[in-house]
Specification:
Number of strands of chain A: 0
Shape of chain A: globular
CATH class of chain B: Mainly Alpha
Number of strands of chain B: 0
Oligomer: heterodimer
Number of helices of chain B: 11
Largest interface: A-B, 87 and 82 residues
Helix content of chain B: over 70%
CATH architecture of the largest domain in chain A: Orthogonal Bundle
Strand content of chain B: under 5%
Shape of chain B: globular
Radius of gyration of chain B: 23 Å
Largest sheet of chain B: none
Largest sheet of chain A: none
Number of domains of chain B: 1
CATH class of the largest domain in chain A: Mainly Alpha
Chain lengths: 291, 271
């Protein structure tokens, strides 16, 4: 009885507040927009058989007809992909240096990497607005050292979005790579060097393959949330940067077209399922390797 | 691997400068006298004064704190129950679905979670406000708590529990007297994580709330959309200061505890 309670309380909570809401999103994505509030015609009200005959893919067809949505999905994928690569290029050397640092420093270094994660995400993104704007500190600094004569337009471009994503998600890249590198047996590299391998070659042949699990985990941890990101493109990207999270938010709050917003959400979910499954496979493989 | 090359030193320096400079600049400019955020006009604390007399911000801060306290506490109980079920529950009907529902919210884009919850609240005709934000925050943060707690549960020695059960403790007593004290640090860090996630959340709260409740991130959002403002800089500095001191205190406590634990272990070995 107690066991039943222990299992059923969190189970029912998640069923009602996580799973059922998704079913509702699917349902609304397949219904007609009406002007009443709630602004949709419920598709399920006449029972199951009627529901299937009433199903209508109009909203999805609408999404394929309007370029805006295609462009937003593609540009989200592109931005998420490029920022993941940038985060990896920047994060790997940091994780590598952390793993090589003296033992007594490591706990502090770890804390310094995690600390920004505890401070408000919104504030960390906002901090870049004052740095990147045309009147901002970066432009003033570059002007002062004589590198530029005209202020650079960085804020409200996709460059600012890349900077924002790399900045907020870099801890997620560093931590799994660091965990993998810390476990790495240093004698393997010594052996390679003793056998005549150059340092660079030993790095590519031994260190990188052995930290592959961490690299993959880090890339997914950056790519997946970056794809649906809303705050960073809205605050730093300006009106010219299309990302699907922003489109969804606006479709819902500004245009009040709920069925289309739901259809946008359903497609985003379908796109995300593949990386999420790959990520979980990688995690399972990592756990098995540890045993 | 104990010698840092100059390349390592450069990457660490650059990395930490990249992580911390923007926040440092924010804090420095919160003491700027000028309303123009990028021009330094001398030291002043007037923005802090204006912030503290701004009722709308204080109200929003109170709502946020209330939501975070309640939701993180419920989430800790539910998340610990879920972790216990996953690690110790054995097989039960729908286990795969259950663990899927625990892991999925961790990677779900906030816009989707928020949208789906709002549609649920509207569907069942619930009045939106503090209550619905609490429900929404509890749902996603219980999953984080459960991940943190289950990693601790998975690594600890199960024979301790079994010994207690053999000696006649009821399963509940065994949990309260043996399991809970051992997993307590993970439960506490789960609560802290849930609390900060709730304090921080903008997107899900915007979907889940109604006209009656505005949280601090929503308030910050509506003013930063119009550009940089010195009041928000002051607010950000207060929040950064609170978090930094909290984390530093927590790490000092855990360091002291681990030193004590090591001393105790050493004494035990000698005996």
């Amino acid at each position: 009885m107690r066991r039943f309670l222990l299992i059923s309380v969190p189970y029912l909570w998640l069923l009602t507040l996580f799973l059922i809401p998704f079913v509702i999103v699917f349902k609304i994505a397949l219904s007609d927009a009406a002007l009443a509030i709630p602004p949709y015609m419920p598709t399920m009200k006449d029972g199951l058989s009627a529901m299937f005959s009433q199903l209508d893919f109009e909203n999805f067809i609408f999404l394929t007809e309007d370029d805006l949505y295609w462009k937003a999905y593609l540009s989200s994928l592109k931005i998420a992909f490029i920022s993941t690569v940038l985060t990896l290029l920047l994060g790997y050397p940091i994780a590598y240096a952390m793993a090589r640092a003296p033992h007594e420093w490591r706990a502090t270094l770890m804390m310094l990497i995690i600390l920004p994660f505890w401070t408000s995400f919104l504030i960390r993104v906002y901090a870049w607005v004052g740095i990147l704007s045309t009147e901002g500190l970066l432009n003033r600094f570059l002007f002062w050292i004589g590198a530029i004569s005209e202020p650079l337009m960085i804020l409200n471009t996709s460059t600012a979005v890349y900077i924002g994503i790399v900045y907020t998600y870099i801890p997620f890249m560093i931590l799994p790579i660091y965990a993998a590198l810390e476990r790495l047996d240093a004698s393997l590299i010594e052996a390679a060097e003793d056998l005549g391998c150059s340092r660079m070659k030993a790095f590519w042949l031994i260190t990188v393959p052995l930290s592959k699990g961490g690299i993959i985990a880090g890339c997914f941890l950056v790519f997946i949330p970056a794809l649906g990101e809303f705050v960073i493109p809205s605050l730093l990207g300006g009106s010219g940067t299309l990302m699907i999270g922003k489109v969804l938010f606006e479709e819902f709050f500004s245009n009040r077209d709920w069925p289309v917003a739901s259809a946008v959400a359903v497609i985003l979910l379908i796109i995300l399922i593949i990386p999420i499954i790959l990520f979980q496979r990688n995690e399972q493989r990592q756990q098995e390797a540890e045993r | 691997m104990n010698r840092l090359s100059s390349f390592n030193v450069v990457s660490l320096t650059f990395g930490f400068a990249f992580l911390y400079l923007p926040m440092l600049i924010l804090v420095i400019y919160s003491f700027n006298k000028s309303k123009l955020v990028t021009v330094w006009a001398g030291f002043s604390t007037k923005w802090y004064g204006e912030l503290l007399s701004n009722e709308a911000f204080l109200d929003a801060a109170w709502v946020t704190l209330k939501v975070a306290m309640i939701s993180s506490s419920i989430a800790t109980v539910l998340g610990t129950m879920a972790a216990y079920t996953l690690v110790r529950g054995g097989r039960f009907f729908g286990r795969t679905l259950f663990s899927g529902m625990i892991y999925a919210p961790l990677v779900m884009p906030e816009v989707i979670t928020g949208l789906s919850l709002l549609l649920l609240f509207i569907g069942i005709g619930m009045d939106r406000g503090v209550m619905t934000i609490v429900l929404a925050h509890t749902t996603f943060s219980m999953c984080f708590v459960s991940v943190v707690v289950s990693s601790r549960l998975a690594t600890f020695d199960r024979s301790l529990e079994e010994a207690a059960l053999d000696l006649g403790a009821s399963p509940f007593q065994a949990f309260r007297l043996i399991t809970l004290p051992i997993i307590a640090p993970a439960v506490v860090s789960g609560w802290l994580l849930a609390f900060t996630l709730s304090l921080d959340d903008l997107v899900i709260a915007s979907f889940a709330t109604g006209p009656s409740a505005t949280t601090l991130p929503m308030k910050i959002w509506s003013s930063v959309r119009l550009g940089v403002s010195p009041e928000i800089n002051a607010l950000s500095s207060i929040l950064i200061g609170l978090v930094a001191s909290g984390v530093i205190i927590a790490s000092l406590i855990s360091k002291r505890n681990s030193v004590r634990l090591r001393l105790e272990e050493r004494t035990a070995e000698r005996l």
